[in-house]
């Protein structure tokens, strides 16, 4: 990662929240600032390859409350709570209506909820690997049910045993292997290393369980019709968490949407095909009024 960020800490509801602010490197005089929201069980590290490919944009990316270096909130960590955090962040950092909001995976649910509630507050919405179908429906419902049991057991066990289960190296590697579609051994090794390093950086088992429950019960579809700003959906042909059919159905519900599907990749577009994703982002933003 060659881009250097300034790190800012802001208090939110009595909890310290950490932000990374990357200045534009070149020719960024007219390029909009992008505020990014990462996915479940991740932190800002997961979006660094996307950030690296967008040098003309100023980019702000926080660790969501309870993950990475941001402290947990006292209340429930659900979609509404995270959406309110996005609103607080944009206001506190002085990010106006020319800002572009981007969310990956669970971040797509959070970003779309806030954008639907505040349609005039951002210039455009970008959703990478958007969650278009409820996790407990469709072909992957058994896997989702198994994951739900895993997180419930991890939260219910005595602390030492629960943390050992949730952070088990073999289980994390198994999850990583299922999501990674690339055959490039070097890239797979990198992806596994990222998950081993950052997949267990959460404040507590309570936070993890609450965020997981939010991730499997909400979808972008819930607020699609209220997204009146230009919306780019960057989907993936082999995404186990959102079929191509589901993504097309989602796009049809959004008034001003553009759906792009990247072939040969799954739920890790941000790791496996960042160049392709950012090429689509730049093309989309070039056609979006400031």
C-alpha Rg (nearest Å): 18 Å
**What pattern of helices and strands is seen along the backbone?**
EEEHEHEHEHHHHHEHEHH
Q: Structural class, from helix and strand content?
A: alpha/beta
Poorly predicted spans: none
Instruction: Tell me what portion of residues adopts beta-strand conformation.
Output: 15-25%
- Tell me the strand order in the biggest sheet: 1-2-4-3-5-6-7-8
Helix content: 40-55%
Oligomer: single chain
Number of helices: 11
The total strand number stands at: 8
Give the overall silhouette.
globular
Average pLDDT, all residues: 94
Largest sheet data: 8 strands, mixed
Question: What is the CA–CA distance across the termini?
Answer: 29 Å
Describe the protein in words:
The chain is of the alpha/beta class and 290 residues long. The chain has helices at 48-52, 79-92, 106-117, 141-156, 159-166, 169-179, 185-198, 205-217, 244-253, 269-272, 274-286; strands at residues 6-12, 15-22, 34-37, 59-62, 100-104, 124-128, 231-236, 257-262. It is globular, with a radius of gyration of 18 Å. It starts with 5 loop residues before the first strand and ends with a helix.
Compact overview of the structure:
With 290 residues, this protein is α/β, with parallel strands linked by helices. The chain is 41% helix and 16% strand. It has an eight-stranded mixed β-sheet with strand order 1-2-4-3-5-6-7-8, with helices on both faces.
């Amino acid at each position: 990662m060659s881009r250097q960020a300034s790190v800012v800490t802001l208090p939110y509801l009595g909890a310290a929240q950490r932000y990374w602010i990357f200045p534009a490197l070149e020719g960024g005089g007219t390029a909009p600032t992008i505020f990014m929201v990462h996915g479940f069980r991740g932190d800002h590290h997961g979006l660094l390859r996307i950030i690296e490919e967008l040098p003309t944009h100023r980019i702000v990316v926080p660790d969501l409350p309870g993950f990475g270096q941001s402290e947990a909130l006292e209340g429930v960590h659900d979609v509404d709570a995270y959406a309110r955090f996005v609103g607080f962040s944009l206001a506190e950092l002085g990010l106006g209506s020319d800002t572009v909001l981007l969310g990956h995976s669970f971040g797509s649910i959070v970003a779309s909820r806030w954008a639907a509630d505040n349609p005039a507050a951002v210039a455009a919405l970008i959703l990478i690997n958007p969650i278009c179908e409820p996790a407990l429906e469709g072909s992957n419902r058994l896997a989702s049910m198994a994951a739900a049991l895993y997180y419930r057991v991890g939260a219910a066990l005595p602390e030492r045993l629960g943390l050992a289960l949730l952070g088990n190296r073999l289980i994390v590697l198994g999850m990583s292997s299922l999501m990674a579609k690339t055959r490039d051994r070097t890239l797979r090794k990198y992806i596994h290393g990222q998950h081993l390093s950052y997949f267990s950086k959460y404040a507590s088992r309570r936070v993890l369980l609450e965020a997981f429950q939010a991730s499997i019960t909400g979808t972008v579809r819930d607020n699609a019709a209220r997204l009146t700003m230009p919306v780019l959906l960057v989907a993936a042909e082999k995404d186990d968490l959102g079929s191509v059919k589901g993504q097309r159905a989602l796009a049809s519900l959004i008034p001003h949407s553009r759906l792009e599907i990247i072939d040969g990749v799954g739920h890790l577009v941000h790791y496996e095909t960042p160049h392709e994703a950012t090429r689509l982002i730049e093309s989309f933003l070039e056609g979006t009024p400031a």
